[in-house]
Automatic annotation (TrEMBL):
The keyword S-adenosyl-L-methionine does not apply. It comes from Planobispora rosea. PANTHER family: MOLYBDATE-BINDING PROTEIN MOLA (PTHR30535:SF34), VITAMIN B12-BINDING PROTEIN (PTHR30535). Residues 71-362 form the Fe/B12 periplasmic-binding domain. InterPro entries: ABC_Transporter_SBP (IPR050902), ABC_transptr_periplasmic_BD (IPR002491). This is Iron transporter.
Length: 362
């Protein structure tokens, strides 16, 4: 995913007593299950059942569209947002994902309106095995392979299958929490992108027989991103820093969590910029120190909001005061984002917001 490790991020959530956030990674689904949906035709065929495909090394079969879906937490919000944008709310039996702030403000209320099934989290901040099995869903969705780790108290995919319950991992996160991940899965995880978000939408379209809705949504979201790409094409790529002050517990040096790699770099690139720390892997979020920030060249600051209580202008002012020599500090050039830079269906919103400060008026 991403730079965020779910177990570490869960601790951050607990520390802030906040709702959960996406920290998503990326490993791509084989083309016959998801990727083909990304470049969609004008119309889509209906899904043929039984639908069988490989999901992170496990063969899964759907005899019909699932009607009792449990969406696990996994410190993600991308999966539940994808369900909502596809109009699949009625298929959700219980949802454990939520986030108190969003680049799409309407999303907050829509997520809160979903049933939770009375579920509670265990010490690892997800639904324990006994509760999952008792609820009897027909599908359990996890943002990462670790959502089915018995060592964390979660139901395994094998346990669920034995109980007649299908499981599904967001294909972009196959390698996350999977020690035996293939090299292809690990490589795809490292190379996550905006396209990874669209692939999950395409996969849901097939599983739930809403391929036309998925194709239309993918086309809209892709079109918005491409509109920005065309607008900024050929313009100087300004250096952009994405920093989440509210996630300072993610950084070993108690600094704002700086988002590096994967989908973060791709969002910035689509907006006409380049990540200040481009080329570094996700470990940078944990290891970046004050000296590195002090010597960084930052033209644009993107302040990530983690909780509803945070004020973007105040957080930007604090960061500018700490690093007054930045070009961004001198010009006061910044914007705010929340879930739009994570793996999920809101990347287009973040690209549009960031592009307006990277290349205003162009």
């Amino acid at each position: 995913m991403n730079p965020l490790n779910p177990s570490r991020f869960a601790a951050a959530v607990a520390a802030l007593t906040a709702l959960t956030v996406t920290g998503c990674g990326a490993a791509t689904e084989p083309a016959d299950t998801a990727g083909a949906a990304v470049d969609a035709p004008a119309s889509a065929a209906r899904t043929g059942y039984p639908l069988t495909f490989d999901n992170c090394g496990m063969r899964v079969t759907f005899q019909k569209p699932p009607r009792r879906v449990l969406i696990l937490n996994g410190t993600s919000v991308g999966e539940v947002e994808s369900f909502i944008l596809l109009g699949l709310e009625k298929n959700i039996l219980a949802n454990a994902q939520s986030y108190g702030v969003s680049d799409d403000p309407t999303m907050i209320g829509k997520i809160k309106a979903l049933p939770t099934g009375g579920l509670t989290m265990n010490k690892n901040f997800d639904v324990p095995a006994e509760q999952v099995l008792k609820l009897k869903p027909d599908l359990v969705v996890s943002t990462w392979s670790g959502g089915f780790d018995a060592k964390s108290g979660f139901a395994t995919r094998e346990q669920l299958a034995a109980a007649g319950i299908t499981s599904l991992v967001n294909p972009v996160n196959c390698a996350m929490g999977k020690p035996e991940a293939t090299e292809a899965e690990r490589r795809a995880y490292r190379n996550q992108s905006i396209n990874s978000s669209l692939e999950f939408i395409g996969l849901l379209g097939r599983v739930f027989d809403v391929q036309q809705r998925a194709f239309d949504l993918i086309r809209e979201l892709r079109g918005r991103v491409e509109t920005v790409r065309r607008r900024v094409a050929g313009l100087p790529a300004k250096k952009v820093l994405i920093a989440y002050p509210g996630m300072s517990m993610m950084n070993a040096n108690d600094l704002p969590a700086v988002m590096v790699g994967g989908i973060y770099d791709d969002v910035i690139k689509a907006a006409g910029g380049v990540n200040v720390f481009a080329g570094q892997n996700s470990d940078a979020t944990r290891t970046i120190n004050k000296e590195q920030l002090a010597t960084a060249e930052v033209d644009v600051l993107v302040v990530g909001l983690f909780t509803p209580q945070e004020k973007g202008d105040e957080e930007a002012a604090k960061i500018f005061a700490a690093y007054p020599h930045w070009a961004a500090s001198k010009s006061r050039t910044y914007t705010t984002v929340s879930d739009g830079v994570y793996l999920g269906p809101l990347n287009a919103l973040a690209v549009e917001k960031i592009s307006k400060v990277v290349h205003p008026g162009d």
